[in-house]
Amino acid sequence: MSKPYFVGISGGTASGKSTFANWLENELSDLCPRVFYMDGYFKPDGVRPKAIAHVTGREYYDDNCPETIYHQQLQEDLAQAVAEGARVILVEGLFALWYDWLYEQLDLKLFIDCQADERIVRRLKRNMAQRGLSFDEIAEVYLDMVRYRHEQYIEPTKWRADLILNGSSPSQTANQMLADHIRKLARGNLS
Mind listing the domains of the chain with CATH numbers? Predict the structure, then answer.
């Protein structure tokens, strides 16, 4: 059995990671890629770590630190996908380039970059529409926790990426070239 082609897709909150992963999954459908979204591995309330905001002193569940992910379960699920013969594996999430055990498996490391002001607007729209949160709730968490954790954990992983993609104005040409590159290398892994 040949090794699957592993792609890590990281970036800040609402940078376009999931959008790109979804597009790539569709574009590579002939290779039946398996996609693992790290949001699906968040620990539940009560188990998830908490943190105190530096400025306000408020306590929050800390969804923006590496310890919030059940990474052991993710490891097991990735190993299962390999055992099942997956040809392409996409791992999408804030910490896709953070964990050394995962980083070492990745054949291609991508970081979706997007300015903070655009990310907060996207996060507001998404969380109000999909999660029913108020503007104030979202803004409070972002200003108290998310932006600091981004600087602490996410931004440094940008420099571990092979490619940094524009999350504000994605280039269809660049994305297509990337998909073609992955397809070519994934097929090469099969021979």
Answer: 5-190 (3.40.50.300)
